[in-house]
Design goal:
Elements lengths: L1 H10 L5 H11 L3 E8 L6 H14 L3 E7 L2 E9 L3 H10 L9 E2 L12 E5 L20 E3 L1 H9 L4 E4 L3 H4 L2 E3 L10 H11 L8 E4 L4 H12 L5 E4 L2 H12 L5 E5 L8 E2 L19 E3 L8 E3 L2 H6 L6 H6 L4 H13 L15
Parallel strand pairs: 2-5, 6-10, 7-9, 9-10
Antiparallel strand pairs: 1-3, 1-4, 2-3, 8-11, 11-12, 13-14
Helix pairs in contact: 7-8
């Protein structure tokens, strides 16, 4: 009982978000951002969740980690001075032996994470599928960066982006099919129908680090797609392989990442446009400063300065209202999330 109370108290940090972020920025600790995942069984996810939190917290690690009976999905950073201790601990767990790290392509001035969250989930990636319906272990074979390039260069092959539309908007592989969706759940639902005309072709899937393609390739194979493979290690590892092996980089633009960086440069091109003016190229994401909106949007320097970080003059005006009024509308808006919370609401039409 004492141990459970201790872990629970460590998990609860009631300070405002900005205060937590400032603390991490000010500490000056050099960190390595990484991700890893594994579809490995955990008999007692709650027990492992508590142990993992305690150990990572003691090492000063920050990030977001989900644990389920089916496996683990982690995006985090580790103080460089504690890397060896972190690595030794991960390798000491029999469930995690052999799980590869995907080291971030680039860091930025702001740490990738500013708090540590370890949660038990039903699934490590929300997919909306019942795993009883199909064999989730019957995944497509892996493709190396070199092999994936061969698919990109093959006019008869089909390359499919298994990420959300707001991710592929700022970066994707040349010639890839990029579905206009806001969730992985939605993409899995439409994928078999969307790709049915390519059912007999060679298909190559890709995503950020590989985890979504594991489930997607198994789902497509269940739906009769026989020639499905996927990029091992995702876009992150692709970039490392390209540099290490001197391969041609077929990825255009930025790779969206789900942390404070919100993107890392893979290709030198900027392929997307500011959502506010639709004229200037930009692949830098912002969240609207109006907490009742908080929509994710792309902004150019001129528009961000002009609207002071808000997505619209409406949001700028709203934030000048008395706190009580703002709080009332914020509560009610979040209770009834509508089309304004769709991440593609502001996508530039070109």
């Amino acid at each position: 009982m004492m141990r459970e109370q201790k872990v629970e108290s460590m998990k609860k940090d009631m300070r405002p978000r900005d205060e937590k972020k400032k603390t991490v920025v000010a500490d000056g600790i050099e960190r390595t951002t990484l991700s890893f995942y594994g579809y490995v069984p955990f008999e007692n996810p709650k027990f492992f969740c508590e142990e993992l939190f305690e150990r990572l917290h003691s090492l000063g690690c920050l990030g977001r980690i989900y644990i389920a009976k089916e496996g683990i999905n982690a995006q985090m950073n580790v103080p460089k001075k504690n890397w060896d201790l972190f690595d030794a601990y991960i390798k000491s767990r029999k469930e995690l032996i052999g799980i590869p790290y995907k080291i971030a392509v680039e860091e930025c001035d702001t740490p990738s994470f500013y708090k540590l969250t370890v949660k038990v989930k039903e699934k490590i990636v929300a997919d909306g599928l019942s795993d009883d319906l199909f064999d989730v272990t019957n995944t497509g074979a892996y493709l190396s960066a070199k092999e994936f390039n061969e698919y990109v260069e093959d006019e008869e092959a089909v390359v499919v982006d298994m990420r959300n539309g707001y991710e592929s908007e700022i970066g994707h592989f040349e010639g890839a099919i990029t579905p206009e969706v806001d969730t992985f759940r939605e993409e899995l639902r439409i994928a078999p129908e969307l790709l049915k005309i390519h059912k007999n072709k060679k298909i190559a899937l890709y995503c950020t680090g590989g985890i979504r393609c594991e489930k997607a390739s198994a789902w497509l194979k269940h739906n009769g797609f026989e020639h499905v493979r996927h990029l091992k290690g995702g876009i992150i590892d692709y970039k490392h392989q390209v540099e290490r092996e001197g391969l041609q980089n077929h990825f255009l633009g930025k790779n969206f990442v789900f942390d404070e960086r919100m993107g890392e440069r893979i290709g030198n091109e900027v392929i997307s446009y500011c959502h506010l003016c639709s004229k200037t190229k930009s692949d830098t994401h912002y969240h609207c400063k109006n907490i009742a909106c908080h929509i994710l949007f792309l902004g150019c320097n001129a528009c961000i300065e002009k609207k002071n970080g808000y997505c619209s003059y409406k949001c700028m005006t709203f934030d000048k209202l008395p706190e009580g009024v703002k709080n009332y509308f914020t509560r009610n808006t979040h209770l009834n999330k509508g089309a304004q919370f769709k991440k593609h609401r502001m996508k530039a039409k070109r």
